[in-house]
Design brief:
Layout: E1 10-15, E2 20-23, E3 26-28, H1 35-46, E4 50-55, E5 68-71, H2 75-86, E6 91-94, E7 101-103, E8 123-125, H3 129-134, E9 141-148, H4 152-163, E10 167-172, E11 183-190, E12 193-201, H5 202-221
Parallel strand pairs: 1-4, 1-6, 4-5, 6-9, 9-10
Antiparallel strand pairs: 2-3, 7-8, 10-11, 11-12
Bound molecules: cytidine-5'-monophosphate.
Function: Catalyzes two sequential steps in the biosynthesis of coenzyme A. In the first step cysteine is conjugated to 4'-phosphopantothenate to form 4-phosphopantothenoylcysteine. In the second step the latter compound is decarboxylated to form 4'-phosphopantotheine.
Domain DNA/pantothenate metabolism flavoprotein C-terminal: 6-214
GO molecular function, one term: phosphopantothenate--cysteine ligase activity
Length: 222
């Protein structure tokens, strides 16, 4: 393991789910545990980076070596924290499972049952954090994740192009891999190449991923 793969670089990692509030006691969330992102943050610190970890609501301790942790709840809060932290960063790794939608309004009081009638929530789309950073003239090297159940390569290549990012780490979810599991397997895609990282526990996989990120960063940014 190349201990200095990210030596001297400022790296921002986002991790975990986002929670989009419906009312004071309810929210829309997802099953991301944050484990993969926290493992990536730890591996990046081990590889010599100065790491800022932007964490959604998770029950995980800050990994050793991580310089700064910013806890957020919603996608909007995550975007604001990432934009600030990434302003002078070399690399942004978006490992968070950002909610695609949020309720248009957050009810100020707990919603009551409708007496047998249904309840309709209107959702609006959240901003895409990676695409927002990619649109800037001065932007960090951008790494995204893709979790799909099928057609992994096509989705990953589409994500590279559509979001305008440098690297996509793709994993197949289901079949005991991905969310809420200790193991994962990844295929890393960039504009003109790919590398398969076989099934391993998330910390080992994170170390391999960080090595690839270091190699690709230096290939593109010198
Ligand atoms: O578009 P999709 O959610 O499939 O892409 C996943 C990747 O995009 C992840 O790296 C995730 O962190 C990032 N993402 C983001 N902002 C969003 C949604 C996803 O940065 N609003």
């Amino acid at each position: 393991f190349a201990a200095g793969a990210l030596a001297g670089l400022k790296v921002v990692v986002s991790a975990g789910p986002t929670y989009e509030d419906i009312d004071p006691v309810r929210f829309i969330g997802n099953r991301s545990s944050g484990r993969m992102g926290f493992a990536v943050a730890e591996a990046a610190a081990q590889a010599g980076a100065e790491v800022t970890l932007v964490a959604g609501p998770v029950a995980l301790p800050t990994p050793p070596g991580v310089a700064r942790r910013i806890d957020v709840r919603s996608a909007a809060q995550m975007l604001a924290a990432v934009e600030e932290a990434a302003a002078d960063a070399d690399i942004y790794i978006g490992a968070a499972a950002v909610g695609d939608y949020r309720p248009q309004q957050v009810a100020p009081r707990k919603l009551a049952k409708q007496g047998g009638a249904g309840l309709t929530l209107t959702l609006v789309e959240n901003p895409d954090i990676l695409a927002t950073l990619a649109a800037r003239p001065q932007r960090p090297f951008l790494v995204g994740f893709a979790a799909q159940t099928h057609d992994l390569a096509a989705y990953a290549r589409d994500k590279l192009q559509r979001k305008g990012i440098d690297l996509v780490a793709a994993n197949e979810v289901g079949a005991g891999l991905g969310f809420e599991t200790p193991d994962n397997a990844l295929t890393v895609y960039w504009a003109d190449g790919l590398l398969e990282l076989p099934r391993a526990d998330k910390r080992e996989l994170a170390r391999r991923l960080v090595e690839v990120i270091g190699e690709r960063y230096r290939a593109v940014r010198g």
